[in-house]
Each structure stands twice: as structure tokens, then as C-alpha cells.
Specification:
Shape: globular
Number of helices: 4
Structural class: alpha+beta
Oligomer: single chain
Strand content: 5-15%
Low-confidence stretches: 1-7
Number of strands: 5
Strand order of the largest sheet: 1-2-3
Amino acid sequence: MAGSASSGESSRETRTVAIDAEVLAGKRFPYQEDISLVEDIDLLAATPGQDINWLEDITLLEEDGVPAVFDRYSNSFLKIYFDIPEGREDEIARKMLIRHLTDGNSYGITLKDIHCKFPQVELGPWVEQSRIVGTDWKQPVLEGWTAPAGH
């Protein structure tokens, strides 16, 4: 039990089941707090190949009692801190995710530059003329580490 003396855990210990996008980034993004920054996103225009079907899987969820959308690229929740108009929950969640991805703020996109093993567009198919990453991947080496004998 968290915080119990018998478990040896500190009473100030916080347990997190899921990771939030702002935890990974170390900050909140303005569009998490202002609906006007996502209102004008055209979901059809922002969808690669005009295939809106993938967006149908994106729905408004809740994380820690706060509305959120799940970012599959970073396996994290992007919390939404503004009031969402009734009946527009999934639309706003989809617009929020598109904004997050096209701005390059998904932690998964941040990791592509270092860990992408094959050429692909950095920001995905959502952004025209996005730079190509993964053209010169090198296996990362942990400083000071040497492979065990025989490897």
C-alpha cells in the first residue's frame, strides 16, 4: 500500500500508471489550454491520403479525471484543459492529436531523429515537405560500456 509504514514506502511517493505528454516534454502546450488553437484544423485536409478512417479510432478519453486523447507515437496521454462543447468530444480530441503531431510535439516524433533505422518523414504524412530522418542511423553506444566477452 502506497504510503504505509509497513511497506517501507514514503508517504510522499506518487505512483503513475500512465505517462502524460507534458511529463515527457517537460511542459504543457498552449493548445492544451485554448480551444481556439485547434478549432480551425480541417481534419480531412490534415489526413494523409484523405483516408479519414484512421481518425475514427481516435476518441476522447479521460486520464486522472481530465479529458485526454491518446498519442500512440509516444504511448502517452495528451490532456485537454479547456471545456469541450457537448457533442464535439471526439472531434476536439482528433483535432488536438493532429495539432500535436503536426507541430512535432509528440515525444515519439522527437525520438525518431535518433532511433529511426530507415528513412521516413519526421512528422509523418500529415505535414508536406517534412524532413526525412533515418538516413544515417548508427547503433547507439552507452558511454563507458563494453560488450561482454564473446559478443
